[in-house]
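Running this now, will post back.
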Amino acid sequence: MQLSLIGAAILATGHFVLAAPTTAPTATTTANITLTAEGYAPQFSPNFPNLNVSSEANPVYNDGPLDLNTTLSKETMDLSKYPDPWESPDVKHSEVQAIVKMINWDLVPKNKVRKTKKDDLVFKGYNEDEDPDCWWSANMCVTPKVSYLPPDYYTCPTKGEWGLTYDDGPFNLRDDDDKDAAKENPYAEPALYNYLAKEDLKATLFYIGSNVVTYPAAARRALADGHTLCSHTWSHPAMTTQSNEKVVAELYWSLKAIKEATGVTPKCWRPPQGDVDDRVRSIAWQMGLHTVIWDKDTDDWDMPAPGGGNLAPSKVDAKFKKWIKEEQAGTSDHGVVVLEHELNHATVNMTMKWLPTVKENFRVVSAMQCNNVLQPYWETDFTYPSIHNTTA
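Update: finished.
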């Protein structure tokens, strides 16, 4: 499988709900490693030194009413406390090293750090058929080859559900003197969030830390609107190309940014372009993060627009039409998790165009809630309402 990395420069495994065991599970010990009652590697919530959670953060589920104000504060977070936005974080930073020391490296597979050539991942020499590392980019693997990691979330288990997700947010306002400001700013947040509020829709949002620190008010609005916030790294690299310490740094700073802006610490993440293997999964899992992929990709990011590519919008339209036709045929026994982006005017316009028709054919829900994940943060007093008769 060829995977372009251009999108990363400019700008995810199915965990189905299982029946409860007849007896309470107990923790097990394997090779001097204590696993959880479910048989998984233990997790921890990162500690965030010098954290100053915004006084405007309200980390509780909002039953309504929702704020539809069209303007948000442009005030950034204290950028001096973070790596430079969109730059690869320094792995020697004391906060990163503190997390590195918390990882059980015996539980991190010794997979190779991947290489790129002309913006493409290099697959030469890797057995894509056997896929020993559960490398999604090579074989769309969603069930880890190591037993102590859970399957990724990648679909909605319930037939007829459309798991709504958006990557790369929050969509920042451009400076007034930016040549694209007049065209893009009307679609920057809270434009999409206000549209979803009016449509009474919730989504799972995968946030880039660099975008959070420069527009924290948008992250707070999304949380207040009932959306689920997850990590999408600090600077959006292909994660299998990052060293172990780089993986830690990318995840750590994105989590800290979300926590400081909103008061919540996500337990979910999506690797940019879905590029993940069991090495990266294990680091993320130990840092408290469950990997989330998708099973329907709109490719909307590739449409002509700032930060986009050259894909004709009609090609994206065709995908929506195909998925709706498939649902109308009734041949699938499960729902879908769909990858979209809050990236530019083209991606926001596309989702606004199709969601009314999607709603006529699917039950549109947040991807995490369709998987019965109702407490996606370490802050356990924050619970989302169940959309099913059971909880997880």
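The two ends are 34 Å apart (CA to CA). More later if anyone needs it.
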